[in-house]
C-alpha cells in the first residue's frame, strides 16, 4: 500500500495550492474549476465542503477525453460531476460518456452537459469516481448512506479503475467504526423478517438494525423500489468479509454497503493537504 502526500506550502507545491485556491474561490459547485484566487489560502481555513471540492478536483485529473465514466452519488461525487461538466464546456475534455449511479446523479450530470448512457450499452467502463462514507486503512469502504449502494456497486464493479474521493473525516480504523449506518438494501416484501435476521446475524457485535425512513416518516424507497435497513455498530465490524458473505446469503437482501477490495486509489483531502493512496 503506497501513500503519497502532496504538500500545501505555496512555495513548494503550486499544483496543490491551486487546488485549494480553486475550491475556496468556487462559491457554487459549477464554479469549482473556473475560479482561482490571487492570495494564499491555508487548508486549515477551508470548510468540509471546500475539502471535498479539493479532492474532487484532484480526482478529475484522472479523466481523459473519450472515456466512459462511472459517475457516483453524493456530495463529493456531485463536485466531480460539476468539474467534469465544466471541463466539457470549456473544451478541455471531449467525447466523455457518463454512466450515473442514481437518478439524482442522472439529473445533475444532464444539467452539467455530460452525455449519459447505461451499463446495458457500455458494460465496461474506463474509470469510476465516487465518494465513500467510511474508508479503512486497506481502502475498503462503507457506501450507500445516500441510498444508491446497489447501482454504485454495479457501476464500480464494471469499471477498469475505481478512484474514491473523501475528506479526512471519512477515515476509520475499521468499517462500521464511525457508529453511523452500514446500509443493507432489502426487498419490500417481508422487510421486517429480514430486519430481524440482520439483527440476529450481528447480535454478538452489539448491532442495531433499523428501517430507514424518509423526511415524512415513511420507509425510504431506493431508485430500485427497495427498502434500506441500516445497521448501527458500536464497534468496528470484526470480520467485514465474513459479514459481507453472510448478508449476501440472506434471501431478500439485494445488496449491502460493504465495498471490499474494489477501490484502486484513494484521494484524501484534509487540513494538511491532499494525499493519494494506492493499493
Automatic annotation (TrEMBL):
Top-level enzyme category: isomerase
Catalytic activity, EC: 5.3.1.6
GO biological process per UniProt:
pentose-phosphate shunt, non-oxidative branch
Q: Which HAMAP family match?
A: Rib_5P_isom_A
**What CDD domains would the database entry show?**
RPI_A (cd01398)
Q: What reaction does this catalyse?
A: aldehydo-D-ribose 5-phosphate = D-ribulose 5-phosphate
Entry keywords, A to Z:
Isomerase
Q: Which GO terms describe its molecular function?
A: ribose-5-phosphate isomerase activity
Give the metabolic or biological pathway.
Carbohydrate degradation; pentose phosphate pathway; D-ribose 5-phosphate from D-ribulose 5-phosphate (non-oxidative stage): step 1/1
Coiled-coil intervals: none
The source's superkingdom equals Eukaryota
Q: Which InterPro entries match?
A: NagB/RpiA_transferase-like, Ribose-5P_isomerase, Ribose5P_isomerase_typA_subgr, Ribose5P_isomerase_type_A
Name this polypeptide is given? ribose-5-phosphate isomerase
Gene3D superfamilies linked = 3.30.70.260, 3.40.50.1360
The entry sums up its family as follows:
Belongs to the ribose 5-phosphate isomerase family.
Q: Isomerase as a keyword?
A: yes
According to the record, the segments passing through the membrane are: none
Amino acid at each position: 500500500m503506497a501513500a503519497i502526500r502532496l504538500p500545501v506550502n505555496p512555495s513548494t507545491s503550486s499544483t496543490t495550492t491551486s487546488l485549494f485556491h480553486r475550491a475556496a474561490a468556487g462559491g457554487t459547485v459549477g464554479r469549482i474549476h473556473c475560479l482561482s484566487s490571487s492570495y494564499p489560502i491555508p487548508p486549515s481555513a477551508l470548510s468540509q465542503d471546500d475539502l471535498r471540492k479539493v479532492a474532487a478536483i484532484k480526482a478529475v485529473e484522472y479523466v481523459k477525453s473519450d472515456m466512459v465514466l462511472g459517475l457516483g452519488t453524493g456530495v463529493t461525487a456531485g463536485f466531480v460531476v460539476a468539474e467534469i461538466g465544466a471541463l466539457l464546456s470549456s473544451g478541455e475534455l471531449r467525447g466523455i460518456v457518463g454512466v450515473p449511479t442514481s437518478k439524482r446523479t442522472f439529473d445533475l450530470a444532464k444539467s452539467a452537459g455530460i452525455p449519459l448512457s447505461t451499463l446495458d450499452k457500455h458494460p465496461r467502463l474506463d474509470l469510476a469516481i465516487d465518494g465513500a462514507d467510511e474508508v479503512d486503512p486497506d481502502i475498503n469502504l462503507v457506501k450507500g448512506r445516500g441510498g444508491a449502494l446497489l447501482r454504485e456497486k454495479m457501476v464500480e464493479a464494471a469499471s477498469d479503475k475505481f478512484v474514491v474521493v473523501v475528506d479526512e473525516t471519512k477515515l476509520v480504523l475499521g468499517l462500521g467504526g464511525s457508529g453511523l449506518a452500514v446500509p443493507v438494501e432489502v426487498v419490500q416484501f417481508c422487510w421486517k423478517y429480514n430486519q430481524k435476521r440482520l439483527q440476529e446475524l450481528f447480535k454478538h457485535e452489539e448491532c442495531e438494525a433499523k428501517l430507514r425512513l424518509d423526511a415524512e416518516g415513511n420507509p425510504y424507497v431506493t431508485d430500485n423500489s427497495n427498502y434500506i435497513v441500516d445497521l448501527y455498530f458500536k464497534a468496528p465490524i470484526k470480520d467485514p468479509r465474513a459479514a459481507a458473505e453472510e448478508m449476501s446469503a440472506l434471501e431478500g437482501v439485494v445488496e449491502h454497503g460493504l465495498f471490499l477490495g474494489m477501490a484502486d486509489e484513494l484521494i484524501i483531502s484534509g487540513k494538511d493537504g491532499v494525499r493519494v493512496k494506492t493499493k
